[in-house]
Amino acid sequence: MIIMSVDFGDARTGIAVCGKSEMIASPVTVIAEKDFTKCIEKTAALAKEQRAEQIVVGYPMNMNGTVGERAEKCKLFAEELEKLTGCPVKLWDERCTTVSAHNALNVTNTRGKKRKAVVDAVAAVLILESYLGFRRNSGEPT
Fold this sequence. Notes:
The protein is α/β, with parallel strands linked by helices. The protein has a five-stranded mixed beta sheet, with helices on both faces. Helix 2 links the parallel strand 4 and strand 5.
């Protein structure tokens, strides 16, 4: 199944996708959009372009497992995206993915403007890799 992941942000939204084999998550792009509705529309257009059959949206729960304002905004984003695309959208716990993305970029010595441009796409890859690992290990149908 082609699965697209989304790391939704107020200014930049990272997008990643995996092919039907569900083996490798690859970064697609970063949508630079501050308008909530326009960001959903651009994300929906990418889902169609990528032929996504499922979408996973990062769900930034608090470290203690509670749901905060940011997570609520991501939930609304996911609900609106599902309505717009008709594609099933799943929220996925993304605690620490942006920190992990920054750590990965430290390893590759990616700095400055280039880092800012790709960190959200890297976070989307990490969200998708986590979800794909869950699917493989849980026996969830692929």
